[in-house]
TrEMBL record:
Organism, as annotated: Devosia geojensis
PANTHER family in the cross-refs: ABC TRANSPORTER I FAMILY MEMBER 6, CHLOROPLASTIC
CDD domains according to UniProt: ABC_FeS_Assembly
UniProt family annotation: Belongs to the ABC transporter superfamily. Ycf16 family.
Keyword Disulfide bond recorded: no
Pfam family, one: ABC_tran
Protein known as: Cysteine desulfurase
MF terms (GO), sorted A to Z: ATP binding; ATP hydrolysis activity
Amino acid sequence: MLEIRNLHVRVEEREILKGVNLVLPAGEVHAIMGRNGSGKSTLSYVLAGKEDYEVTGGEILLNGENILEMEPNERAVAGLFLAFQYPVEVPGVATMTFLKAAINAQRKARGEGEISTPDFMRAVKEAGAQLNIDSEMLKRPLNVGFSGGEKKRAEILQMALLKPTLCVLDETDSGLDIDALQIVSKGVNALRSPERSMLVITHYQRLLNHIVPDVVHVFSDGRVVESGGKDLALQLEAKGYADYEKDVA
């Protein structure tokens, strides 16, 4: 599914990623944990194709294709979805309008016809029910005035409708209370499948109580310094990242 080979990235002449190697097989959920500044979010932005991140070496293969040669919209069509830590507000664009436009843009790029209104409404209703999203929320401008929990639920709704093969969740637990965390996690878990892989980026083990990973990777100083099973997250929660920082120093 996803293979990252010796990835080097810099921003404004500063090297942030210093040789990332990571393999995420189809159907698996992997978590990336690490301190602020370790390069976790940078990796998510590079995967999505955000500007101002200069790749100076390495490859990122999604289903065998080098996505570094693709524009962001092409990566989305290829099956990549990024859930932001801080979803952007889009004044003047109703959430329903945005969702339908996103689905139809994806369908057009794949040579498919536009989704019918009844099929679209049915899909939104089914996906929204699991996320406690009501019709009033969908009528509001995208993310404008939304609580942290509403913004994250809206993103998981997008993910459910677009059906990506690779989901990158950048600190999805940020700004969520316990109830919202459970709702969002339930929505994410409902999308787990043998054809879909997920990369979950987080500081804290609490998210991984709800979205249980197959593998945990520890990021430090722009690279993966250790990988292990879900118990590795518990060790990090107990001991912190100090030992990894010493190794880097």
